[in-house]
Design goal:
Length: about 450
């Protein structure tokens, strides 16, 4: 597989949409260029008493529609190219769901898994101190949230550090907090819930019933595990799941009980670990549980109705896209399908409900959290979910309208445009309009 190039992928998608929309060079340039890039080396304390230096980023892509919004990830592969891409996608994501926020993203290049709790706290506080003292973060300026390997606890330390420096409370400076510190009900499963509402609407349009719909879920972190639970409860058939160690699928016509999946994952730390030790797998145990152990790559190629991508970016690419057999892909992760793969899938007639629509439930409930924090209100869970449903369904309808409007346009590769192209078009249209109204773009 070729090296990942997330920002180039974003630019490629931007180019295609720009061609369809016939954007001017100035308009394209404005969307291709982040408003600010912050990069620094931060020093945090190790339990040994030594300090360690790591590279940290915050990219602020566009604030025409509101304060920058987007998570912070801790990952050993985080780099400027990736954070720039993710920040840009955040501007577009917020625009697709039409919430009044811009886009930003933060990252620290570190593998957080070996860190102790105190080390993680030190790292998180130092990062947020840097962002606060340099005027990067602020409730009306740039509002971070969790992303890959960052948690509500990390948000709590960051909030505390911010408020200590400010000398007063400002809970809306960060979202994805625990409920005790002003987090919103429904935020923990909102990415999955938002994706589920989109999928429901799409399948209902196709006349496809939950009991007749098989789903494979790649990635069983926050988004993937909640999605499996929500879909299972609604009557969909979860027939395969995976985590970073590998996957399992149903060895019969049946489907998984999500309760068992959670137990397996909890007991052995991974699905595969329940049935195999190294290369040796317990055939009897697998038979009894009607499970077949598969690789992550095999899971991607299963013949299912819906493939849910809920792990990292770039997993469906030019070299494996041709072997995808699912009828539909739902992107719960950011950037899991590359532009090259998109073209291949399109030719095969496989639709992709793109990240900036499908996983926008997370940032939408983050926005609800921000609204609650600024008003001092606390919303009920049903109210949060009803509002989320409406926003996700409206966004889906807006994309549908764009697909109708821009079918047979120059720049579209075939009759009609993809969901991703439609999402980019809707997002771009709104951001450009905001920039023009402000006079920052002529
Ligand atoms: N990290 C999430 C995303 O990529 C959530 C961002 C947020 O809540 O601000 O959408």
């Amino acid at each position: 597989m070729a090296a990942k190039k997330p920002f180039l992928n974003f630019l490629k998608n931007l180019d295609t949409a720009a061609e369809i929309l016939q954007l001017s060079e100035a308009e394209k340039e404005a969307l291709a260029t982040p408003e600010a890039i912050h990069e620094t080396e931060i020093e945090f304390s190790r339990d040994s008493g030594e300090t360690e230096t790591v590279t940290a980023y915050r990219v602020q892509h566009n604030s025409a529609r509101g304060p920058y919004k987007g998570g912070i990830r801790y990952h050993h592969e985080a780099d400027l190219e990736e954070v720039k891409a993710l920040a840009s996608l955040m501007s577009f994501k917020c625009s697709v769901v039409n919430i009044p926020m811009g886009g930003g993203k933060g990252g620290i290049k570190i593998n957080p898994k070996p860190l102790s709790e105190t080390e993680l706290e030190s790292l998180s506080r130092v990062y947020f101190r840097w962002g606060t003292e340099n005027g990067i973060f602020g409730v009306n300026k740039d509002v971070p949230a969790p992303d890959v390997y960052t948690t509500p606890q990390i948000m709590s330390w960051m909030l505390d550090e911010h408020e200590k420096i400010l000398g007063h409370k400002s809970p809306g400076v960060i979202t994805g907090k625990p409920l005790e510190l002003g987090g919103s009900l429904g935020r923990n499963y909102s990415t999955a819930m938002g994706g589920f509402y989109v999928l429901q609407k799409h399948l209902a349009k196709l006349g496809k019933k939950p009991v007749d719909t098989t789903i494979a879920v790649q990635g069983f972190g926050n988004a993937g595990s909640y999605f499996a639970e929500i879909a299972h409860e609604a009557g969909y058939k979860i027939v395969a799941v995976s985590d970073s160690k590998g996957g399992i699928c149903c060895d019969s016509d049946g489907y998984f009980e999500v309760k068992s999946l959670k137990e397996w994952k909890k007991q052995a730390g991974s699905f595969r670990g329940n049935f195999c030790e190294g290369d040796t797998c317990d055939i009897e145990k697998m038979k009894k549980s009607q499970v077949k152990v598969i690789s992550n790559e095999e899971l991607l190629k299963l013949d299912v109705d819906v493939l849910v991508l809920a792990a990292l970016d770039g997993v469906v690419h030019d070299e494996n896209a041709d072997e995808i057999s699912a009828k539909l892909i739902l992107e719960l992760a950011n950037g899991p399908v590359t532009p090259e793969a998109d073209e291949i899938l399109e030719k095969k007639g496989i639709e992709v409900l793109p990240d900036i629509l499908a996983n926008a439930g997370g940032v939408t409930v983050s926005y609800f959290e921000w609204v609650q924090n600024r008003s001092g209100d606390v919303w009920e869970e049903d109210y949060v979910n009803a509002k989320l449903k409406k926003i996700m369904e409206n966004a889906y309808s807006d994309l549908e309208k764009a697909r109708e409007k821009f079918a047979f346009q120059p720049g579209s590769r075939q009759a009609g445009i993809s969901w991703r192209q439609a999402a980019f078009i809707v997002a771009i249209d709104r951001i450009i309009a905001a920039m023009k109204l402000r006079g920052t773009l002529k």
